[in-house]
């Protein structure tokens, strides 16, 4: 059976840039555009040319090789000619394959926001589209608040979409701008529109204000839309946009869509989508969502022992797709709810060899449960668990001994109203018969400790040169004056490998130091470095 082509449109560089706390540099935008291009999306929307110097520079040349590079802006203003509208002039001057206009499709907004007649708004849409086509570009129109407009005045919303297509635009984009429309409404309205306008000219642009952006996008596709818009990791204003990182695997792997539609993301590229998602978060200096569908570190994680037993017999029991199809991996978590099946599965995944009948396994399991009752959390600290298991089953090399550490914090007034604060740490370790004392100043006590600990590890120093502390999280496990603090630290080696460790103590600095030391020890164990 011939599959229909379904087109993927990414608006991370515009809608995603509206996310609170997100700002893209020019290099960021160029790197993200290339990332999307390699993934296989069909359209990459770059933002507003002329809006600021950065975007003006970004649009001086095409930034994609395969995907169509798009500029975004408003249709011409009522009462002005195309040649006298600076916004349209900026779009036409950009080096792009396509121009995306935004237009009002809710009669209320036409009257109140634009202050023109309904007919004038239709003329603005038509003239703007023709200008883009005359310049040799593909044109499309984002019909803002389309679903609200359709509910209020379906004839006018349809007239906006019909005018868009009659004028020569490739796509009429139905936007759920405030994210308030529900899936059953989306499916009904899109189906009604598709009776008037061919589905292969209709696109869906969904926001996530009810948590339904992905569901709304799928509902629109079911009803006839053949282009779907979204952003990497669901970034966007307020609650975000439809998450392409969730939509793409669903379209590629779920039979209802995979058998009916062809998308530009190949199976090989799909296996990179977890890496793309995490690399994007890394670029933004954000912690990846561990529970994100398909790509999260916990997306294929199982904690209960009975589930692990079922997974061992048939992975399809609790996995709706295979983890490797999206470049992710299965995780059998060892925790206070774990059973022997979890333990054996996790040891096998980590490459820790053991005899299933080894009586030390029972003691290891009891140790895990006992330590988790004290505040440790091994489902989020795979490296700490592996070290614990190796110590129980065969030993961990004694690389170095920390004899003591000291941290001091200084804060002083250096000028009226101006204060200076810094942290200093001193770490004393022993490697064999040799003692080492290292000191460092850092941005806070944990940073100072990290720098001091890794400043001089003697014969091991060359093995930790590219070690990077990627994430640091603290949780108070028990409240009150006798609070117990849990610290989770994620490390990386400058490449693709990451690992996490946990420390627990009534003192947050002590807990942090435990996790820092285990992160280094784990690195040396995985490299097979012999103890001196």
From TrEMBL:
Residues 6-271 form the Pyruvate carboxyltransferase domain. Its EC number is 2.3.3.21. It is an enzyme of class 2 (transferase). CDD domains: DRE_TIM_LeuA3 (cd07941). This is Citramalate synthase. One of its GO terms (biological process) is isoleucine biosynthetic process. The keyword Transferase applies. NCBIfam families: citramal_synth. It catalyses: pyruvate + acetyl-CoA + H2O = (3R)-citramalate + CoA + H(+). Pathway: Amino-acid biosynthesis; L-isoleucine biosynthesis; 2-oxobutanoate from pyruvate: step 1/3.
